[in-house]
Design goal:
Strand order of the largest sheet: 7-4-6-5-9-8
Distance between the termini: 42 Å
Number of domains: 4
Number of strands: 27
Structural class: alpha/beta
CATH class of the largest domain: Alpha Beta
CATH topology of the largest domain: Molybdenum Cofactor Biosythetic Enzyme, Chain A
Largest sheet: 6 strands, mixed
Strand content: 25-35%
Number of helices: 6
Radius of gyration: 31 Å
CATH architecture of the largest domain: 3-Layer(aba) Sandwich
């Protein structure tokens, strides 16, 4: 039995994603001001020492530490951003501001509150004069040649500031993945339309577009496809030409009008079609060249769980992120949980207690059509099949999808 025919465990399915998604998206250059949230295309290497000069960490006076002169003549004022050609010698000092270059000859800075001024001289508390005190040495923050930010890093405020401090007004980032989202099914109507008999509002198209954009993608198409085979084939073929990833929902189970499952077999290499997981049993993964296609189930929760587990992984791979696999953790159950016939990804709220232990509590009823089970969830607890239910305080694995708060689940 092939991987496309048998119920594949989620772990094996993820292995197939890693095995068949190996390419990386190209880089593009952009203005640093537009780069927050983008992914660095190559490592950032320091082209100079920082600070490039010994700098004062306090307002005070630059002195020679082993100078025994009781009074020191103030020969200059040294401000931040001003490199004066002065030299401190025995019996002299320079008034200096925080961040200013330490003048030649000086090897210590005495804080201003530890000094007294008498005319144009400074008298210091000698106990405060220690060689190297209150001075940031050259290269103490970073050294030329240091790798400061690895490729694949998401650029946040600190990374943007570091790039600016090293003179980068523009930066090479990974191009955003181009994603198309297609929902299928004649039973679907737009959100602003009253459903007729046998109809439902199309939520997947909107939730999957939001999920893709939250994952850093550019959604280039978001629409509803027909249940007419030739029209659907033409649309999917066109989307595959334009997109890095095509995401469909519906049309992949065993119904007479589930056309996408057959269509995927025609258009590329199908790596799996059925998974030993709940929700999300009928989930298709196909590639054609460097185009990735995921056929998600029509149930809203199944679609979003499939996105979180498999599609996000593929997005992170092609974006060059260093740890593309789902983030897993060990948690304790805060309540009893019923076992299922497949590995179930139960939506849960996960939080830490005062001892740092992770606890998980489900978000209520877990039906695959109940979107409310995802509202407020920050993870999935992975419940493996067994004859007995899971009891409070049992340890299980969890997939973390959001911020973990403190205070217990």
């Amino acid at each position: 039995m092939t991987a496309t025919e048998r119920l594949l465990p989620p772990g094996e399915a993820l292995d197939l994603v890693f095995a068949n998604v190996t390419h990386r998206l190209p880089a593009e250059e952009m203005d640093l001001l537009e780069a927050p949230g983008r992914i660095l295309a190559g490592p950032l290497v320091a082209d100079r020492d920082l600070p490039p000069f010994p700098a004062s960490t306090m307002d005070g006076f630059a002195v020679i530490a082993d100078d025994v002169s009781p009074w020191r003549e103030i020969i200059a004022d040294q401000f931040a951003g001003d490199m004066q050609d002065i030299e401190v010698t025995e019996g002299t000092c320079a008034r200096i501001m925080t961040g200013a270059p330490v003048p030649k000859g000086a090897d210590s800075v005495v804080p201003v509150e530890k000094t007294e001024l008498r005319d144009d001289h400074m008298v210091a508390d000698e106990d405060e004069i220690v060689e190297g005190a209150n001075i940031r040495p050259i290269g103490s923050d970073l050294r030329k040649g240091d790798v400061l930010i690895e490729a694949g890093t998401v650029l946040g405020p600190a990374e943007i500031g570091l790039l600016a401090s090293l003179g980068h007004a523009r930066v090479n980032v990974v191009r955003r993945p181009r994603v198309s989202v297609l929902s299928t099914g004649d039973e679907l109507v737009p959100p602003d339309q009253e459903p007729g008999p046998g109809q439902i509002r199309d939520s997947n198209r909107f939730s999957l577009k939001a999920a893709a954009e939250s994952a850093g993608c550019e959604v280039i198409y978001c629409g509803h496809g027909p249940d007419v085979e030739d029209e659907l084939r033409a649309l999917v073929t066109d989307l595959m030409k334009q997109s890095d990833i095509v995401i469909t929902s519906g049309g992949v189970s065993v119904g007479d009008k589930d056309l996408l499952k057959t269509l995927f077999m025609e258009l590329g290499s199908v790596h799996f079609q059925r998974l030993f997981m709940k929700p999300g049993k009928p989930l298709n993964f196909m590639t054609s060249g460097e185009t990735i296609v995921f056929g998600l189930p029509g149930n809203p929760v199944s679609a979003l769980v499939g996105f979180e587990v498999f599609i996000k992984t593929a997005i992170r791979i092609i974006s060059g992120q260093p740890n593309p696999a789902p983030r897993l953790a060990t948690v304790r159950l805060a309540e009893s949980v019923q076992s299922s016939d497949r590995i179930e990804y139960m939506r849960a709220v996960i939080a830490t207690d005062d001892d740092g232990v992770l606890w998980a509590k489900t978000t209520g009823p877990q039906q695959s059509a109940r979107l409310m089970s995802l509202v407020g969830a920050n993870g999935f607890i992975l419940i493996a099949p067994r004859e007995t239910n899971y009891q409070p305080d049992e340890v299980v694995e969890a997939l973390i999808t959001g911020h973990i708060a403190q205070g217990g689940a």
